[in-house]
Write a structure and sequence with these properties.
2 copies of one chain form a homodimer. The first copy, chain A, has 225 residues and is α/β, with parallel strands linked by helices. Helix content of chain A is 34%, strand content 28%. Chain A has 7 helices and 10 strands. In chain A, the strands form 2 sheets. In chain A, strands 6-7-8-3-9-10 form a 6-stranded mixed sheet, sandwiched between helices. In chain A, strands 2-1-4-5 form a 4-stranded antiparallel sheet, covered by helices on one side. In chain A, strand 4 (59-64) and strand 5 form a beta hairpin. The longest helix of chain A is centred in the C-terminal third of the chain and has 16 residues, at 174-189. The first copy, chain A, is globular. The interface between A and B is medium-sized, with 31 and 31 residues. Bound molecules: adenosine-5'-triphosphate (2 copies) and magnesium ion (2 copies). Residues 44-45, 90, 166 of chain B line the site of one magnesium ion.
């Protein structure tokens, strides 16, 4: 369960202050499928980074499965992230000069999965996103949408209990988008919690619940079904 | 005028060969507004890089305004690019640790525009994409869609005769997308040539002509109006 109370995030100081989040309260239960929408610059990625324990709020409370995230140091935060969370970044964040296969194996290596099983599971994840013939390509040898799909495969391969996806289909055509959404629907059917940022209405339609951010606040909160 | 005849682009060798473009012939006349669509990995960005003289074809002919691009060396290519072409990259390619304003001033600096005029025109371009209050932010202090809009402003500010836009709205909400498309429509009304890659049908609708790539070839070529 994710429990945010009155979370605020401020960047900069003086007259260059940016209040990226301005008092956000949100509860997400295990197994929920939540979509976050909102205009460019409204605070979606900032909220996602706080939910994913990649960033600390300036004010407010955040508990993830009962753990008070604000009290953890960097080592403890990275353990929480690696154990529980799969992250699809808006800018992919693949490791350069490293093959697609090695990129997808990485979360499994962190979890101590043996080499043979790691390789098989990474290959299966890349096949699921349609990239079985690009396993040995490095990021600069892949198209934009192919890099995005490697990032999707990397986030799913370790079967995380919480999946955070920031614009997972922004660079994909309708066929590749449908493949990625099918994988997320499967994760949801397996009882995993999904929080996904998107600016596309038909992608948000796959979630059970949609919140809309505006200027760092929740402006709308509606159920899809 | 852009004139491609039987252009092929091959990456790699042996059994790792990728035929990203496989005999593409295309003519674009001055003032045309062309959209390029196609599945992820179908060769769109590769074609754009060749049109933009950022990459050389493996085989085939390419003439830009009568100049045989294949005969130019790197210095001559960069002069052609800076003089004639504005480029919006799929991955933005902004200069890190450099403000939005300085990023947008750069094409004008290359063209020898004086400091005061450069600053005024860059500010106007950033205001046109809705970022007048983010001029002094560096790329890592901007949201994904804001970075994309800085890349749009940078491509438009020098009033290029040819604008190449690779997925210019992938990270933008409907409002910011409408702002960017309005700017492209204005460029088109001024008689500039626009080639735009997109996977969104309603964005492609703004062009006069749409080609669809499939596995490195033109699979469809239709007029929009
Ligand atoms: N440097 C490279 N080495 C090997 N293969 C490459 C290289 N660059 C691109 N490719 C391959 O060439 C094909 C075309 O890539 P391209 O970037 O043109 O696709 P695209 O249509 O722009 O896709 P997207 O919509 O995902 O951006 C892809 O299958 C890609 O894997
Ligand atoms: N490091 C930073 N320093 C200053 N301002 C920042 C920083 N990071 C983000 N911001 C600002 O905070 C606001 C929220 O950014 P955020 O990345 O959360 O937006 P977003 O909703 O994800 O937008 P997009 O849809 O464009 O990706 C933006 O206006 C941005 O300029
Ligand atoms: Mg974002
Ligand atoms: Mg591309």
């Amino acid at each position: 369960v994710l429990d945010l109370v009155d979370v605020t995030k401020v960047y900069g100081d003086g007259d260059a202050v940016v209040r990226a989040l301005d008092g956000v309260s949100l509860t997400v239960n295990t197994g929920d499928y939540l979509a976050i929408m909102g205009a460019s610059g409204s605070g979606k990625s900032t909220l996602m980074n706080i939910i994913g324990a990649l960033d600390i709020a300036t004010a407010g409370q955040y508990h993830l499965d009962g753990i008070d995230i604000n009290t953890l140091d960097e080592d403890a935060l990275s353990i929480v992230r690696n154990r529980k969370i799969g992250f699809i970044f808006q800018s992919f964040n693949l490791i350069p000069r490293t093959t697609a296969l090695a990129n997808v194996e990485l979360p499994l290596a962190y979890r101590g999965v043996k080499r043979g099983e790691r390789r098989d599971r990474a290959k299966a994840a890349l096949t699921a996103v349609g990239l079985s013939d690009r396993m040995h390509h490095r990021p600069n040898e892949l198209s934009g949408g192919q890099q995005q799909r490697v990032a999707v495969a990397r986030a799913l391969v370790a079967q995380p209990s919480l999946l955070l996806a920031d614009e997972p289909t922004g660079n994909l055509d309708s066929r590749a988008t449908a493949d990625v959404l099918k994988l997320l629907d499967q994760m949801h059917d397996e009882g995993r919690t999904i929080v996904m940022i998107t600016h596309e209405n038909d992608v948000a339609q796959h979630a059970d619940r949609v919140i809309v951010l505006k200027d760092g606040r929740i402006d709308e909160d509606r159920l899809n079904r």
